[in-house]
Structures are given as structure tokens and as C-alpha cells.
């Protein structure tokens, strides 16, 4: 199963990815998590990405494409993966198509998780309180920028994948278990 979870910050991609990892026995590839680990251990890439991420802007396509390309070459991805937070731009989606083509692999589905902006803001504020403000980009001003970046740069992927016949849409505002059930139904359609 090769799956992309697509949706704005706070839509619940990470939460669902973790459930699907258990259900399907395939890894979650979160570019956000990989970048945050690089920041934590202060690699040159992490240091370069930190400022951009703290503002809520996107790290360069070249950096994230490189991360994903390396990750997809690892053995645990051979049977499938759940991409969470990638692609975020049309250029990234095209790069992913190219990487998969070179491997002779195809995506099974792209699941769009829909959610209202007001709900996203309150969910992220809640997440920030729960983890003691651990993520510098979980504050209201940066969040508004992340939502704007999503509608400018990432939302066009909905059409991109609809045209490829891969798009499935679920309601990301439903309770967690209902969203999981909807995703599982959608990918087996
Ligand atoms: P969220 O889903 O809450 O926005 P992520 O952990 O997916 O959080 O991403 C956090 C930040 O990491 C983004 O705002 C961006 O700066 C950077 N990032 C993650 N994935 C990508 C990507 N595919 N392209 C560019 N930047 C990325």
C-alpha cells in the first residue's frame, strides 16, 4: 500500500498515519518529523531548515525531495509507505512521480483530509498546550501563515491527484476512529 495523506496543518495526518502504520504494517514517512529530528541533532540541514520552519514557510523542494528519495530507498519502504506532509508543492509531487517511476512503483491512493480552518487553529493551540509549546511553529501567527502556505502551495495538489484518478476525500473533522474507518474504506474502493 502506497499512500499519501494530504491536508492542512492540524487535519490529523500524523494521528491517522500512526494508526495506519499498525493496520497495514508499513512505515510512516513524515517530512516534518524527519526535519525536526535533523534540527534536534543540529545537522547542517537541520540548522538551515529551522528558521524557515519556525516562520511556517516551506523548506526548499531540493531538501525535502532529497530526504524522501533517501528514505524511499530503505528496505522497510519496499512493501509500501504512508507519506505524511509530503508532497506539499506541485514540484514535489512531480519529483515523487519520477522517484516512483524509477522504482517501477505506483501510488495506490491520495487521501485528502478536509477540515475547517477555525477547527484547525483550535486543534493546534490545544496540541501546543499539551506538549508544553515544544514546537516553535505551533503559535497563532505562524499557524495562520502555515494555513496560507497550504492554500497557496499545497491545495493545488488536490486537482493534480484528482486528474491522476488517485484522489479520495474524507472528513477530517469526524472522530479519530471514524476518520480511520473512512480512510480504510476509501483505499479499498
Ligand atoms: P503540519 O502538518 O502541522 O504542518 P509538519 O510536521 O508536516 O506539520 O511540517 C512542519 C513544517 O516542516 C512545515 O511548516 C514546513 O516548514 C516543514 N516541512 C515539512 N514537510 C515539508 C515539505 N514536504 N516541504 C517543505 N517543507 C516541509
| Fourth CATH level, the homologous superfamily | P-loop containing nucleotide triphosphate hydrolases
Percentage of β-strand residues: 5-15%
Bound molecules: adenosine-5'-diphosphate
Looking at the structure, the CATH topology is Rossmann fold
Main sheet: strand order:
2-3-1-4-5
In quaternary terms, these chains amount to single chain
Main features:
globular; five-stranded parallel beta sheet; 58% helix; alpha/beta; binds adenosine-5'-diphosphate; single chain; 189 residues; Rossmann fold; 5 strands
Structure in words:
The protein is an alpha/beta fold. The chain has one domain (2-187): P-loop containing nucleotide triphosphate hydrolases (Rossmann fold, 3-Layer(aba) Sandwich), CATH 3.40.50. The protein contains nine helices and five strands, in the order E-H-E-H-H-H-E-H-E-H-H-H-E-H. Strands 2-3-1-4-5 form a five-stranded parallel β-sheet, sandwiched between helices. Helix 6 packs across helix 7 (140-154). Residues 9-10, 13, 31-32, 35, 52-53, 56-59, 64, 85-86, 88, 92, 137, 146 line the site of adenosine-5'-diphosphate.
SSE layout:
Blueprint: E1 2-6, H1 13-24, E2 28-30, H2 31-40, H3 44-55, H4 61-72, E3 81-84, H5 90-103, E4 109-114, H6 117-130, H7 140-154, H8 156-163, E5 167-171, H9 176-188
Parallel strand pairs: 1-3, 1-4, 2-3, 4-5
Helix pairs in contact: 1-9, 2-3, 4-5, 6-7
The protein binds adenosine-5'-diphosphate.
Amino acid at each position: 500500500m502506497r499512500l499519501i495523506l494530504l491536508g492542512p496543518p492540524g487535519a490529523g495526518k500524523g494521528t491517522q498515519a500512526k494508526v495506519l502504520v499498525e493496520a497495514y504494517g508499513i512505515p510512516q514517512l513524515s517530512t516534518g518529523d524527519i526535519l525536526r529530528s535533523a534540527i534536534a541533532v543540529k545537522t547542517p540541514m537541520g540548522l538551515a531548515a529551522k528558521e524557515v520552519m519556525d516562520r511556517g514557510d516551506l523548506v526548499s523542494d531540493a531538501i525535502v525531495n532529497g530526504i524522501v528519495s533517501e528514505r524511499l530507498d530503505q528496505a522497510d519502504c519496499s512493501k509500501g509507505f504512508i507519506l505524511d506532509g509530503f508532497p506539499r508543492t506541485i514540484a514535489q509531487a512531480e519529483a515523487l512521480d519520477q522517484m516512483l517511476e524509477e522504482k517501477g512503483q505506483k501510488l495506490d491512493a491520495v487521501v485528502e483530509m478536509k477540515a475547517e480552518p477555525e477547527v484547525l487553529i483550535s486543534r493546534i493551540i490545544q496540541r501546543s498546550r499539551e506538549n508544553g509549546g515544544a514546537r516553535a511553529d505551533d503559535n497563532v501567527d505562524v499557524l495562520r501563515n502555515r494555513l496560507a502556505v497550504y492554500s497557496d502551495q499545497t491545495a493545488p495538489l488536490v486537482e493534480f491527484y484528482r486528474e491522476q484518478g488517485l484522489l479520495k476525500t474524507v472528513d477530517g473533522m469526524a472522530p479519530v476512529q471514524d476518520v480511520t474507518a473512512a480512510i480504510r474504506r476509501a483505499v479499498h474502493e
